[in-house]
């Protein structure tokens, strides 16, 4: 189709504002999907996506729409994830488009990720069409949503289209607005093929299927192509588009979105954001590419040690469909053989663990998540440490830097005090506050990534009774007083419970772990000491008392020295037992502590 009749657009929104339902409606209205094939959340293929109501993978789909002017247009839609963990995936999807539908929930208004995604789209110079969704809800407040559009995002409210994706209201207006306002794709003026690889997935029969947006030239089967960032060359086997299932085409022309296969064996060969060009006559690189690096690390171990090989095979299969997931083998004295895994963020970590349990039937236990620290040594070298076991001795460390994130928290006015105390508890500082409307404020703050790993999002939701929302973006590293906290059981360090924490938090964390271990470690014939230590300094301690046996029971009458002799003998025995006795901590105890 000629470029003048092509429109490339995506849908961006905060989580749960109705992106996927709107895309379902658009597919139905354009006749891409027959009514009998319709189902809710059609583009979300994974059970997990349907259950949680989130999009994890971006899904491109091509629709043909006959507009009111009688012309037929090819509309290429990319349904993007809304969560911050997949922000790079969203930015790559945006660079494959010329326009964006910004969806806002009429009941909830503008939220943290609405703001973040709007700025991402504005940075890519996309034409933004605001859509106020869920107008059929009894507590929908369209006037307030329009007011927030102007106040927070500086978008004229008269351009907003009211709609209800669930009821099918306003869908026609949205399609007409896309045709009228989204600019058609323009060629970049390069001498040969130039295409953006914005996503990929693995197919058992075809190998890696790469999602592409052609900016210049055309792709057709039999053509030799090269990926500029990875430097690898392939021959194209098949090209096509999605509706939403893949179908083959003769070629993909400038401005079109679709897929290509080329005997690529591993998804790590196709880097997200890479430029695809003609091998015989290469063109220039498209802007915006960056390597994806894991932000959060955690150890994953099989609960039953016999499942190690099964877990290894499952991780290999999972890696094929998720190129951002990284893993390497590691061993632990306590948990046996397992893997050190890297994730883009907390949601990504949860999703991977859940998929391993469900799709691959593996019982796993995950260690406390950690981030990548930059450790500056006294000899001038810099070491990146993601595992407490690899932290050098204190005498060799000059300073430690930890990763920071800039967080944007939107909360009701009455919760601002609680929110600020939560941020300061997490060692963050509020840079500035912004009043969004009569009821809500946005706090911009700088917080260590390590502090928001576990319960930060839950705490925001509970403080604001569900009305708060949060978005964050990684910033730079900052020097911090970080220490390694070791847990000693009977003076032996347990590597599974070691963690890198800020000095001010070390004592409370050590005390919590010691109390938990006291509950789960079974009693022995001798006294067991549980200690939390920073280097040689003990910061918290608990004692598990020994089993008691009344050795003086057989003494009846006689001199007191007889009883004393028996008690002394018992004391000697316990002392000897303590020096040679081992404390075997059962697997269940490790699992209990790590779960908490």
Describe the structure.
This protein is of the alpha+beta class and 596 residues long. The chain has five domains: 179 residues, Rossmann fold (3-Layer(aba) Sandwich); 85 residues, Elongation Factor Tu (Ef-tu), domain 3 (Beta Barrel); 72 residues, Alpha-Beta Plaits (2-Layer Sandwich), CATH 3.30.70.870; 107 residues, Alpha-Beta Plaits; 112 residues, 2-Layer Sandwich (Alpha-Beta Plaits), CATH 3.30.70. It is 26% helix and 33% strand. The chain contains 13 helices and 32 strands. The protein has an eight-stranded antiparallel β-sheet with strand order 11-10-16-7-8-15-12-13, with helices on one face. α11 packs across α13. It starts with 5 loop residues before the first strand and ends with a helix. About 1% of the residues have low confidence.
Secondary-structure blueprint:
Layout: E1 6-13, H1 19-29, H2 47-52, E2 59-66, E3 72-79, H3 87-94, E4 99-105, H4 112-123, E5 127-133, H5 142-153, E6 161-162, H6 171-181, E7 194-203, E8 207-216, E9 218-219, E10 224-227, E11 233-235, E12 238-242, E13 246-249, E14 252-253, E15 257-261, E16 274-278, E17 296-302, H7 308-321, E18 326-332, E19 336-343, H8 346-359, E20 364-366, E21 370-371, E22 373-377, E23 382-385, E24 397-412, H9 416-425, E25 429-435, E26 440-448, H10 456-463, E27 469-480, E28 482-489, E29 492-493, E30 499-502, H11 503-520, E31 528-534, E32 537-544, H12 560-580, H13 587-595
Parallel strand pairs: 1-3, 1-4, 4-5, 5-6
Antiparallel strand pairs: 2-3, 7-8, 7-16, 8-15, 9-14, 10-11, 10-16, 12-13, 12-15, 17-19, 17-20, 17-21, 18-19, 22-23, 22-24, 24-26, 24-27, 25-26, 28-29, 28-30, 28-31, 31-32
Helix pairs in contact: 11-13
